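Hi support team,

I'm filing this because I wasn't sure whether my run with NDP finished correctly. The job status page said complete, but I'd like someone to confirm that the output block is well-formed before I use it downstream. Pasting the exact inputs I used:
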Amino acid sequence: NRRIVLASRPSGEPADSDFRLETGAVPEPGPGQLLLRTVYLSLDPYMRGRMSDAPSYAEPVQVGQPMVGGTVARVVASRHADYPVGEWVLSQSGWQDYAVSDGSGLLKLGSAPERPSYSLGVLGMPGFTGYMGLLDIGQPKAGETVVVAAASGAVGAVVGQLAKIHGCKAVGIAGGPDKCRYVVEELGFDACIDHRDPAMANLLAKAVPQGIDVYFENVGGAVFDAVLPLLNPRARVPVCGLISAYNATSLPDGPDRLPLLMRTILTKRIKMQGFIIFNEYAPRFGEFRAAMQELLRDGRIKYREDVVDGLENAPRGLMGLLKGENAGKRIVRVGPD
Ligand code: NDP
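And here is everything the job wrote out:
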């Protein structure tokens, strides 16, 4: 049984030395327990937060303990009546080949799910985040303009496509011309701005002549600075993530923008709301899965995975995700189907 543990807490960007691969015996399930073989591991930006012991909404991973993470796994041994061998489940087994479970917190995916890994992305936590953040907090109305950054990623791709389905204009922001082309040509956004282009703020202003009614915040930093003056009165800003700062070790350079932010919120009567998806919306996960399954089946939502091969490559996969090296939802193939 291989597992990747947190070897040390990073300062700034995580490095190889912050992770350690350990090998041990495969655990044995006791009475009422089952043994899970990880097939896919999800890599997500929040994992950077768990490597730090700064106060947060969730407990940090302890040094020496396996990294946490959502997984899609198969039951390979069972002493639990509800989980026969061969069953697929969505679990939280973390960065390891095998894990013992008592069944709590598992979601059954059946014995032959069509695309099991989708439960880590478009049909799982990130898809749910885009769905609830946009529809419940963003409240998009037909004809409005919705802007989302990290637009080609797991959450952003869902946000922009749902915005289109709800009759809005969708403008993405993404890193580089390839991602922008994908966002417009494959995902069907109306426009996409490259945030690495020095003219980003001007290009964004030109792309939203009617202003911005919903800004779905995934990144913060320079992108938010460009968005703020373009927000319309009564704009809604679901605050989902601030990935541009996850590796930061100090405040950004430049003047203090807090007074400008507060004045804009006041005079334009803007609604900003942060949310942590399962803390806020857990009871609505079933409703989301049913709706998203139908949209996927009808081809109205497109989805792309970026698969890293091998558990041993998970650390590099996470480091790359934080730098935008992923093309779509990043997952690790850990074991055989
Ligand atoms: P993605 O698949 O979008 O991957 C992360 C992307 O972030 C990168 O590909 C990169 O895209 C972008 N990025 C990284 N650094 C910067 C930067 N400095 N400026 C602009 N963009 C940057 O990840 P997810 O879809 O899983 O997550 C998106 C956001 O949603 C994250 O902030 C995450 O923390 C948050 N989130 C929040 C949840 C909640 O409950 N609140 C739940 C799930 C996710 P590019 O190359 O286009 O710049």
